[in-house]
Amino acid sequence: MSQLVTLDNPLVASFYEALTFPVFRSKLYATANEGAIVAVGANSHQKPIGLAMAEIFPDGRSSILSIFVDASYRNQGIGTALLENLLNQLKQRNCQSAQIVYVTGKPTIIALEKILAKNEWTTPKPRMLVCNCDRTQMLKVPWLQKEYPLPPEFEIFPWTEITEQQRVLLQNQQKNDKWIPVILNPFVHEYNLETLNSIGLRHNNEVVGWVINHRLCANTIRYTSSYMRPDLQKLGRILALYAESIKRQIANPEITKAVWTIPFVFPSMIAFAKKRMAEYLISMEESRESFKTMN
Q: I want to staple 282 with a disulfide (CB 3.0 to 4.6 A). Which of 129, 132, 139, 241 is the partner?
């Protein structure tokens, strides 16, 4: 018989940290103090067997960060109970809606989607293509072996060396022309970026493209945000940036893995990944999202 407990004490929460992703463990400890994180644990005979976490935003939205049940205790309704309890607590905190984002390819996804349907969440929709690769496979990619010479008016530079003048110009361009998709805005992703291979492209000293990355762990880099100004996209300049960024990772043998995501709202980028990268990937999955309005 399992019991549910609200994890509003950091000491108690510490026993459940293995049941969520490393990136969320610090949030788990914040539940007692900040109020923006809600976490519910399940235990059996004082043994932690399940965890559900959510984050509350100031505008009344909430995001389900993770749901996990120990394999030995699945198919007993524990996942459903965790989610229902979590949603009730979100309602008590005046949340108006909840979102969940998850990646396919795991055996537990079928059970999760059944839970969502049972609790009247919206039908899950594809959100991003999720690509995973390792160093061995990177070295086999044909287009990475090519050189991509740039005309003299173009220059690749470390993103950390963007000047204040270039930053202001790019921000002003975005205000006036809005040529940068919101989710790919480089300034949104600058925090804690990977300095090794986060790079930009200048044209006549004006920033026109970038690849912004983050270190997920010692051996893995996530390619977070990449984009090229629309009038330059057909010239293939983004290939020069991709190649340079990936080569800088490959030059460090201890960084063996790479992961990147592509929003489905960019069909040309999806097509590029499927045509040019699919056969060299460890896996190609998709992230999906579902929503629920609080009644």
A: 132
